[in-house]
Amino acid sequence: MTGNVLNLVKNIPGNRLWLVFLRVGISSVAIIHFAALQGDFKDLFSQDSFVSPDIAEALKNHLLPSVYSISHLTSKIMGIGYHAILLTVRIVYPLALLSLLAGFLTRFSALLCLLLQLLILNSMDLYTYGADVFTTIGLFYCLVFPVGEDISVDCLLFKKPAITTHLNKFLLIFRVHVCLIYFFSGFEKLLGYTWRNGESIWKMVHAYNVLPSVDLDFLARTPLFLIAGWLVIALEMLYPLFISITKTRRLWLWLVVTFHVAIAFFMGLYFFSAIMIVFNLAAYYMPYIGKSNDEIAPELYL
Fold it and tell me: How far apart are CA 93 and CA 72, in angstroms?
């Protein structure tokens, strides 16, 4: 069985395999992330939540709907209240993610996931962070890119020929976006003094109590944290350059992946780190997996 799967993967061109990985990776992380919210779901979304929905509504983006705004409308028209709308979203969203993961009605599933995820985010605006934003980006690309062409229920049911045009252009668009994310993340850190003086690295190691039994105070007067802060800035701002050079691509890729593993370990930002690792591997690892240089289109070397 394992051999058959490996052969199937190897037979998929590199410029389509990354699309499969993007679909599976984004939907898997989103499913686990949503499952992790269930223990606090009542405190975040119900009418007895930490911040009452009618109060939180005043702070939300009114260009996008929320569970409260939809329920306010449906209660007047159809008598369907807040809890019914919330329950519907709570059930349909993970089902749509599972459908996207399996590649069943892929584009429709991606659209449904994206709309419901935006609805959820606008309903918990006070509690969102980077992982939610990048999940939105990932779901958007699952909608606009042909991510259901291989290893999907769609390709088994409909047996349509896979799209072979513009694939390298899709990859180029995705790579440019990832490069911009890292460059401006590093540039923002450069503007703030806490990364330049090492304070942010110090806080990352200490403030989240991941290593309570390890005392690192003896390093306070060393330049270690200052150097680490500048290394992070350099890692991110130089990402577009060194990830695009063939000889340095693998090194930079694994440095960035290691950086995100450290963020997950020290800061507990597991889902943010997972999404960013999916982005990196999809853009700069999966297109080359199992392929020799002769099999890779020149455009993939950007």
Answer: 20
Q: What percent of the chain has pLDDT over 90?
A: 42
Q: What are phi and psi of 48, to 5 degrees?
A: -105, 25
**For residue 98, how far is the Cα from the chain centroid?**
16
Between 68-72, 245-249, 278-282, the lowest mean confidence (pLDDT) is in 68-72
Cα 252-253-259 angle, rounded to 5 deg:
85
d(CA 119, CA 260): 28
Q: Is residue 284 within 8 Å of residue 143, measured between CB atoms? A: no
Cα separation of 123 and 66, whole Å?
A: 5
CA–CA separation, 187 vs 234, rounded Å? 9
Helix 246-267 with 270-284: angle, nearest 10 deg: 170
Of the pLDDT bands very low, low, confident and very high (cuts 50, 70, 90), residue 110 is: very high
Does pLDDT of 300 surpass 50?
no
**Which among 77, 76, 53 has a CA at the least distance from the CA of 65?**
53
Average pLDDT, the chain: 82
> From CA 170, how far away is CA 46, in angstroms rounded?
40
